[in-house]
Design a protein that fits this description.
Helix content is 64%, strand content 0%. The chain folds into two domains: 65 residues; 76 residues, no CATH class. The chain is mostly helical and 143 residues long.
């Protein structure tokens, strides 16, 4: 599913929480409704941020992978140092350690990913996964 379509679909979850609040609680909420209303609002906000973060990751992955063409359309050595450093170190770290927020596979199960990452680096290719896992919520410096 394209990133924007997926993003819009996931925002519907937040909208449903906001609809529940609007349909079942007063505005402003009565004192006894505060906890429920804050829970619904907080849940909606968390879902919105998570949806946006996933959308940004999908976009980074898609557009960074567009740089990998045969024959190459870019000269890897002419890319900004910051981009090259991020690509090399994150590619290797992700392959060696495993994906963030997931159970770490055994070392023997990481070998294929290490070999793939090394192959991409030797071929002077961009690894989109190196840019998609930021480890934080999207903000201007992360993007």
């Amino acid at each position: 599913m394209p990133a924007l379509v997926n993003f819009k679909e996931s925002l519907k979850l937040s909208q449903e929480l906001m609809n529940l609040e609007k349909d079942h609680f007063h505005n402003p909420p009565h004192h006894k409704e505060n906890v429920a209303v804050m829970g619904l609002r907080g849940g909606a906000a968390v879902l919105m941020v998570a949806s946006f973060e996933f959308f940004i990751r999908q976009l980074f992955s898609k557009y960074m992978s567009n740089l990998n063409t045969t024959p190459p359309t870019i000269d890897f050595k002419k890319l900004p140092d910051k981009l090259r450093v991020k690509n090399v170190y994150q590619s290797l770290e992700r392959a060696m350690v495993g994906p963030l927020f997931e159970e770490k596979p055994d070392k023997k199960d990481r070998i294929d990913n290490i070999m793939i990452a090394c192959g991409m680096l030797i071929a002077n290719q961009i690894n989109p996964d190196a840019f998609s896992e930021t480890g934080s919520n999207p903000n201007s410096s992360t993007v």
